[in-house]
Amino acid sequence: MKNQDIQLDSQGRLRHFLTIEGLKKPVLTDILDTAENFSTVGTRNVKKVPLLRGKTIANLFFEPSTRTRTTFELAAKRLSADVINMNISTSSTTKGETLLDMLRNLEAMHCDMFVVRHGSSGAAHFFAKHVAPHISIINGGDGSHAHPTQGMLDMFTIRRHKPDFTALRVAVVGDILHSRVARSQIHALNTLGVPEVRVIGPRTLIPAEPDSLGVHVYHDMKEGLKDVDVVIMLRLQRERMQGALLPSENEYYRTYGLSREKLALAKPDAIVMHPGPINRGVEIESAVADGPQSVILEQVTNGIAVRMAVMSMVLGRPGDEQEAG
Amino acid sequence: MGIHIKGGHLIDPANQVDKKSDVFIEDGKVTGIGKAPAGFKADTTIDASGKTVMPGIIDLQARFREPGLEHKATIASETRAAAASGITTLCLPPDTTPILDTPAVVELIHRKNEAAGFAEILPLGALTKGLAGDELSEMYELKQAGCVGVTNARYPVAHTLVMRRAMEYAANFELTIFLKPEDHSLTKGGCAHEGRISTRLGLPSVPEAAETMAVARLLMLVEQTGVKAHFCQLSSAKAVQMIHRAQHDGLPVSADVASHHLYLSDMDIGYFDANCHVMPPLRDQRDRDGLRAGLLNGTISAICSDHQPHELDAKLAPFCESEPGMSTLDTLLPLSLRLADEIDISTSQVIACLTQHPARILGLPIGQLGLGYQADICIYDPEAHWTVSPDTLVSQGKNSPFMNWELKGQVSHTLLAGQVVFQR
Amino acid sequence: MTEIAKVNTLLDDMVQALQSELQTRKISDPLMIGIHSGGVWVARELHKKLGIRDDLGELNITFYRDDFTRIGMHPQVTPSNLPFAVDDRHIILVDDVLHTGRTIRAALNEIFDYGRPASVILAALVVRSGKELPICADIAGSLLDLKEGQHIKLNGPDPLSLELQEGK
Questions:
Q1: Which of chain A's residues have a Cβ under 8 Å away from the Cβ of B266?
Q2: What confidence score (pLDDT) does residue A244 get?
Q3: CATH class assigned to C7-166
């Protein structure tokens, strides 16, 4: 079967975490509940539990990202795992041969998990297909495809403020075309039962046949923000822009930037989210980013608990090892 | 040297033959159909009972990776795979290294092939020097050297004036121009059809317009220049409609389709199966159906392999970073035959798309088994089942998207000019 | 299945023993922590009967177990909740059954990740045979010598009752 989900083991548990697409609601809820348990660890005197003591986790970053790498590293360390960080310039791995060679080398160091971030869509699946069977892959973001831990930490943040997903109207605003974050969020929101997911952006930044993702498309931000409970702003991925997608940042801000005035169209208790790092004055006004409705910093904090949850769920699967019983 | 092919069911669309009939061959030519010519003496008898006998397949597009990329495949390895698949004639596009834009390269390829000798190679000359899209190649020289047409392969001819001049010049020497319709500014960086699959997987995409824009532009120039044009490997339903209309208007245009586009769609990419990375990309189900409809109404008259063998490493990369192309020689015949089970087309019509029609596009007296014609023959067992696997693929390229498919129809003998070049 | 002792009687004995232990150690204002879930039930009773000032702490040692890779992650656990600072305080740690000692090892590790207590007193409703680590209860409701395969289980929370199970 071509479409068999390689991220699940024979008992339907997470073996890799590559994408939210295709995962059932109970799996997502388990991740959120487990993260809830881990969220207190960061507030204690010793911010560490010995759960993954003796495990080795390698952060393989083929794309620069300080923030995501740091939260993965922190999550692993709070679980008492050993962490190796590797920043790999893509120029040295343009051929698949060397990519696999590197994989084999890391396997030989007895790693248990690779967190992979790569600029090419499908890279995490590629690693999962070719890695030794005892190693788990966590997708730390692949091209424009998926960023599942970011998607889950956003769900965690939403649930803390709005516990009932089935009563929500959520808008995702900005560069949907290039955004792996948006794709993961949309899959998660749909799976968790959010009845209305909207995407808002100019036609040049909305992918083809967007309805197939299960969203309502708006090109007018003022219309799209009306009565929403959650506003998720996306980073304007300037590094991925090619061709004539937008005339200027200034015009983008005026049309799709989140100002106080536009936010007023959403429900009064709406929360504002952003996966960071923020381009102030491009996609969001500072007064909104730092305002009372913003939960942007909470997202960062929650990212650690959610990544701890995913790592411990993936690495703690009884019955998958030989000595099980 | 007489060969008697005995007891087979002969399908020869060019001569409207579709019945049990023996074939007699002397000195590399067909000398008898149904009954032996006077004084025939069989040195060899091939028992074809229960099998189908047809003209050797003419594949309008296949790459051997030689010269230039011999680590992927060679003329010897791929013509052997062709022979094992009932293919006796193959057109080679000019994007070799060095580029096929001088008689010397044609000569080199012919010499290499003479040593291997499993199939006939018909080179297509470069339309522009170095395929750079700026200056005309020496088309007359290329034609004299044996090129059956000219093409710029997948390389752009950005300047419309250059394309117009190239068409005029090709028409001057009655050379058919082979066009791979693609607007490169719309393709740029894309690796999957723009649609719900590319949207879901976040893959850089190639819109349908990348093909239709180019078809529209080229059709206008064909109309103006009167060149005989052949559109290669159409991928979209819309392009088929455009060609259909042009044919209806009397333009001298023909078209082919690659066998994989008749079976696969972007759905088959699944979760990033690099073996489904091909250019033009696999489009959606409607396009697949549109291509099949084009085959049925005759807009598309030939099925080719668009064979592109790769070494293993070429596909060991994330989807977009893998090299595009599929290894398809081995599956060309069985996949084509399967169409008769899936759509309203007869086996004889399918075989015409593999023999008679491509011969007509090339303007060559091949692809049929009339008396006096060269004995290029494929004999296959229509009931033999086989499963596609790295072991069953004869091609050196194991990059087939049809891995593990069970196919019906297996070649038992291939004859090239009366010589048995393959038997199972 | 045999009922072996009235839990209430054992609790009363434990309260007395604890009071005298606290007196001996000159501890006036202890904290109490129960280990999830049976230990919390027992601790609630003791906490009430001893009139401890601070709220009861609850410890869930899932993240500290030494057999994590065999039992895996169960997302439905209630997290640990220590509604006080443990630094320099005297702690009464309560569990229902003290068996191998591994649970207490994990619980001590977790407590020390919250801070540095002045002392820890271990109280268990039942101490059974089968010790694997050098850990003893300071206060024991009852001592049981069980055969291999036998298990003692606390049912609860209301009412609390002990049950002897014969193993498979």
A1: none
A2: 78
A3: alpha beta
Given a cut of 50, is residue A321 above it in pLDDT?
no
Average pLDDT, chain B: 97
The chain C residue lying nearest A316, using CA atoms, is: C72
pLDDT in tens, A71-107: 999 999 999 999 999 888 765 555 555 678 888 888 8
B256 carries an active-site annotation: no
Chain A within 8 Å of C83 (Cβ-Cβ)? Answer: no
Count of domains observed in chain A: 2
Instruction: Enumerate neighbours of A (3 or more CB pairs within 8 A).
Output: B, C
Instruction: Please give the torsion angle defined by the CA atoms of residues C66, C69, C74 and C75, in that order, rounded to the nearest 10 degrees.
Output: 100
Q: B100-116 as b/e, with b when 16 or more CB fall inside 10 Å?
A: bbbbebbebbeebbeeb
Which chain B residue is nearest to residue A21, measuring alpha carbons?
B200
Nearest to A120 among B314, B316, B320 (CB): B320
Distance from CA of B81 to the nearest CA of A (A): 26
Q: Which of B216-220, B394-398, C30-34, C140-144 has the lowest mean pLDDT?
A: C140-144
Query: Considering CB atoms only, which of C63, C75, C87 is closest to A51?
Result: C63
Best of B269, B273, B321 to mutate (most A CBs within 10 Å, chain A): B321
- Whether residues A311 and A276 fall in one domain: no
Q: Which residues contact B105 (CB under 8 A, 6 or more apart)?
A: B67, B96, B98, B99
Rounded to 5°, the CA angle A264-A176-B194 comes to 145
The verdict on A295 and A308 lying in the same domain is: no
Under an 8 A CB cutoff, do C79 and A323 touch?
A: no
Q: How far apart are CA B25 and CA B419, in angstroms?
A: 10
Options B22, B306, B330, B376, the catalytic residue = B306
pLDDT tens per residue, range A162-203:
999 999 999 999 999 999 999 999 999 999 999 999 999 999
Domain around A292:
148-300
Looking at the fold, whether A45 and A128 belong to one and the same domain comes out as yes
pLDDT at A129: 94
Residue A321 lies in a domain: no
In chain A, what percentage of residues exceed pLDDT 90?
A: 72
Residues A261 and A120 in one domain: no
Does C109 contact chain A (CB < 8 Å)? Answer: yes
Residue A325 has pLDDT above 50, yes or no: no
The DSSP line for B91-147 is EE-S-SSS-S-SHHHHHHHHHHHHHH-SSEEEEEEESBGGG-SSSB--HHHHHHHT-
Tell me the nearest-neighbour CA distance from B383 into chain A, angstroms: 26
Query: Do B and C count as touching (3 or more CB pairs closer than 8 A)?
Result: no
Q: Do B319 and A120 touch (CB under 8 A)?
A: yes
Interface probe for B, chosen from A93, A145, A179 (most Cβ of B below 10 Å), is A145
Write down the pLDDT at residue A90.
62
**Residue A103 falls inside a structural domain:** yes
- Is A51 in Cβ contact with C113 (below 8 Å)? no
DSSP per position, A58-127: EEEESS--HHHHHHHHHHHHHTT-EEEEEE--GGGG-SHHHHHHHHHHHHHTT-SEEEEEESSTTHHHHH
Say if CB B55 and CB B355 are below 8 A apart.
yes
Residue type, C150: Q
Beta bridge partners of B381: B410
Q: What is the ipTM of this complex?
A: 0.92
Do residue A186 and residue A284 come from a single domain?
yes
Q: Which of C60, C68, C70 sits opposite A51 (nearest CB)?
A: C68
Reported pTM: 0.90
Tell me which chain A residues have a C-beta less than 8 angstroms from the C-beta of B274.
Answer: 126
In chain B, the domains with their CATH numbers are 2-52+374-423 (2.30.40.10), 56-362 (3.20.20.140)
Cα–Cα dist B395/B76, whole Å: 10
Average pLDDT over residues B3-27: 97
